[in-house]
Design a protein that fits this description.
5 helices
């Protein structure tokens, strides 16, 4: 989540100094498309933060009386992890389109953030499809045959 927020801030910081090639825009901030992309990325990042903090609050609430989360809660938190990774990665993709191809220059922190986020989003515990399958099985009372890590 920190990567998403850092990239978003970086793109905003640089926007008034960057033109959009082959357009009349000498500053990215003047482009309506750019404005929408920055907003879309911010909304995805904010949604990811809300989802994570909701899960953390729920786990904290259960920990106070020393209760364990239910299987459905654990499955949902696992699914939430995948959704968060997808949302942050989607936000980064939007920010890279907005910022431009220079994002992939070795000197740009954007390429590192994009690579790190995409790598993390593909970690076995984070895979969105597996998390969604686990949660769907839990909601439907179907036996989990996917993974013991719930």
């Amino acid at each position: 989540m920190g990567i998403g927020r850092a990239a978003w801030k970086y793109v905003i910081e640089k926007a008034s100094q960057r033109a959009i090639a082959y357009t009349p825009f000498t500053r990215q901030t003047d482009s309506t498309v750019f404005q929408v992309q920055v907003a879309q990325a911010a909304l995805k990042i904010d949604s990811a933060h809300l989802r994570v903090f909701h899960a953390a609050d729920e786990i904290d609430e259960l920990a106070r009386p020393n209760e364990s989360p239910s299987y459905i809660t654990r499955a949902r938190v696992r699914a939430d992890t995948g959704v968060v990774a997808s949302d942050i990665t989607d936000a980064l993709n939007t920010l890279i389109f907005a910022h431009g191809a220079g994002s992939f220059a070795e000197a740009s922190p954007m390429q590192r953030w994009w690579r790190d986020s995409n790598t993390a989003a593909r970690h076995a515990i984070v895979l969105p499809a597996i998390g969604a399958e686990l949660y769907g099985k839990a909601l439907l009372g179907v036996e989990n045959t996917v993974t013991p890590l719930v």
